[in-house]
Amino acid sequence: MIAPMRMRDAALQVLMSFEDVRLMPYTDAVGIWTIGIGHVMVPNQNYPGVKKEANGRFYGAITRDFCLSLFRTDIRKFEDAVNHALKVVVTQPEFEACVMMAFNTGAEGFHGTTLCKRINASGGNHSIIRLAVTEFLRWNHAGGHVLEGLTIRCILEAAHFLNYRMDG
Question: Which residues contact 68 (CB under 8 A, 6 or more apart)?
Fold first, then answer.
């Protein structure tokens, strides 16, 4: 059995920079109600300070502390999904980039991505695993459209996967 991995603080900061911190509810690029750091709002979940109008719109704001608590809970779900899906040992940056991708695309679907399949088919050979980096660039669509922000995010996730340092 492969030991479960967790995101490092620096990688969490990178992920937070992709998502922004938004204390007020908003609809994302495909119309999904979101709050905090990319947290998809759940209909029956309590968000202190936020109310739902009869027309389905949300108003109000959560605190920064509650936002960070949601993020910690959410990130654990994505780490667990990636740990469960990957059947070979990967490097810390490879794991973190996979979690970042899953955070963007959904934990439930990560195991079915070509990226996950290529990593698992590698037999743990890191030269082969690194070739899977091109799969990140396929996830730059939302609502059937290529989004510049997602394209940039995919490039940065790919760079993280390859352990490319962007800070010099």
Answer: 37
Measured between alpha carbons, how far is 157 from 149 in angstroms, rounded to an integer? Answer: 12
Whole-prediction pTM: 0.84
CB-count burial class (<10 Å; 0-12, 13-18, 19+) for 87: middle
pLDDT tens-digit map of 22-67: 999 999 878 889 999 999 998 888 999 999 888 888 999 999 999 9
- In one letter, which amino acid is 48? P
Query: Is domain 9-161 annotated with CATH 1.10.530.40?
Result: yes
> Contact at 8 Å (CB) between 18 and 28?
no
- Provide the residue ranges of all domains of the chain, joining segments of one domain with +: 9-161
